[in-house]
């Protein structure tokens, strides 16, 4: 039996059945780095800059990024193997910010700062009293075509399982009815004392539930500045490249390359091996879009990029100096047509 993270009831009008939710996703076991105390250690300026880059908002452009590709002379030299310095893990505990005295965890309460430095606090009993009906019941109140729900609103996914033998028949009836109608149900659910809209959809013989973000959690896109006419040939070439790169969705092909590199770095550190920093090359900016598209198309098709055809050069000889050729007129040889008088004069000479 899959692990249950929530138990309650699924209700369709007057029909309800006990169900439980099991997470449909899981987090990969990431390599986590802890804060440790290394006596006498000090970070270099480069280390502090790298740490700042880790917390930088990648959605904001930074001047100079991607404008300079590292030269061969700029590549960092491999660092010598470092000795394993003694390190002590540290722990962060609640403490009084004024005296530094450690605070017992059972004295910690949830509070809201309504004015600077002034809080109202709540007990667990007071927060429990705020629970609403949706904390125990998923009431399917509206049904919509699945394709009408924008995936940008999707938050977390769960599998819905019947809770007990008595729940199997109504559970299957609700799932089959939604599948036949081609609809997904919308309802509400409270998880961790937060009410969310949810989407319940049939999935094979069972059902899946996806929590949805609220409207205020999704920003409105503004693409109006990018409206305008496009080069039809460029779009057609790009469409051909997309067609040739079309494949099947296989999530197993995607890996976290940073985590893989971090594991390799840890293994090298543990073994005391020298660390060679790899240079990260930034892609060159596209200056000629059409030329870049044609090169991309040639690369995807495995054919060499077509070279521009040379224009044929016409006869550069002066037409009035060309001698006639027997059986051909000067017009055929590239000159003006010869008259009968001209032919007689040449015979007398």
Low-confidence stretches: 51-76, 308-313, 330-336
pLDDT averaged over residues:
76
The profile of the biggest β sheet is: 8 strands, mixed
Major sheet: arrangement of strands: 7-1-2-9-12-11-10-8
Q: So how many helices? A: 7
Number of strand segments: 12
Question: What fraction, in percent, of the residue positions are helical?
Answer: 10-25%
User: How would you sum up the global shape?
Assistant: extended
- Architecture of the domain at 6-25 and 134-216, CATH level 2? Beta Barrel
Question: Pairing-aware structural class of the strands and helices?
Answer: alpha+beta
Termini separation: 116 Å
CATH class of the domain at 6-25 and 134-216: Mainly Beta
Overview of this structure, please?
The protein is 23% helix and 21% strand. It has 349 residues and is an alpha+beta fold. It has a domain at 6-25 and 134-216: Beta Barrel (Ku70, Chain: A, Domain 2). An eight-stranded mixed beta sheet has the order 7-1-2-9-12-11-10-8. Strands 3-4 form a two-stranded antiparallel sheet. A hairpin with a 2-residue loop joins β11 and β12. The longest helix has 15 residues, at 257-271. Mean pLDDT is 76; it is low at 51-76, 308-313 and 330-336.
Tags for this model:
349 residues, alpha+beta, Ku70, Chain: A, Domain 2, eight-stranded mixed β-sheet
Briefly characterize the structure.
With 349 residues, this protein is of the alpha+beta class. The chain is 23% helix and 21% strand. Helix 4 packs parallel to helix 6 (289-301).
């Amino acid at each position: 039996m899959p692990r249950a993270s929530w138990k309650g009831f699924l209700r369709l009008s007057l029909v309800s059945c006990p169900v439980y939710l099991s997470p449909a996703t899981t987090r990969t076991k990431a390599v986590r780095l802890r804060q440790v105390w290394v006596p006498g250690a000090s970070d270099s300026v480069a280390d502090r800059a790298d740490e700042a880059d880790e917390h930088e908002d990648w959605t904001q452009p930074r001047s100079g990024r991607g404008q300079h590709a590292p030269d061969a002379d700029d590549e960092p030299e491999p660092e010598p193997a470092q000795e394993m310095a003694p390190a002590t893990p540290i722990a962060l505990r609640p403490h009084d910010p004024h005296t530094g005295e450690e605070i017992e965890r059972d004295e910690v309460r949830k509070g809201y700062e309504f004015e600077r430095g002034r809080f109202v606090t709540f007990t667990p009993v007071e927060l429990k009293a705020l629970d609403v009906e949706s904390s125990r019941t998923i009431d399917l109140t509206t049904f919509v075509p699945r394709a009408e729900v924008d995936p940008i609103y999707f938050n977390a996914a769960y599998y819905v399982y019947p809770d007990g033998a008595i729940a199997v028949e109504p559970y299957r009836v609700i799932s089959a009815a939604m599948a036949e109608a081609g609809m997904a149900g919308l309802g509400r659910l409270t998880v961790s004392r937060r009410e969310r809209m949810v989407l319940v959809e049939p999935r094979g013989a069972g059902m899946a539930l996806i929590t949805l973000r609220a409207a205020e959690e999704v920003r409105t896109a503004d693409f109006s500045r990018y409206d305008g006419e496009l080069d039809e040939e460029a779009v057609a070439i790009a469409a051909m490249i997309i067609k040739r790169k079309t494949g099947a969705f296989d999530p197993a092909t995607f890996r976290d390359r940073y985590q893989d590199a971090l594991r390799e770095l840890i293994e090298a550190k543990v073994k005391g091996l020298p660390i060679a920093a790899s240079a990260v090359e930034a892609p060159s900016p596209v200056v000629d879009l059409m030329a870049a598209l044609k090169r991309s198309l040639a690369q995807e098709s495995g054919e060499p990029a077509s070279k521009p055809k040379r224009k044929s050069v016409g006869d550069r000889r002066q037409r009035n100096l060309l001698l006639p050729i027997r059986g051909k007129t000067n017009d055929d040889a590239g000159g003006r047509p010869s008259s009968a008088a001209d032919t007689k004069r040449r015979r007398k000479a």
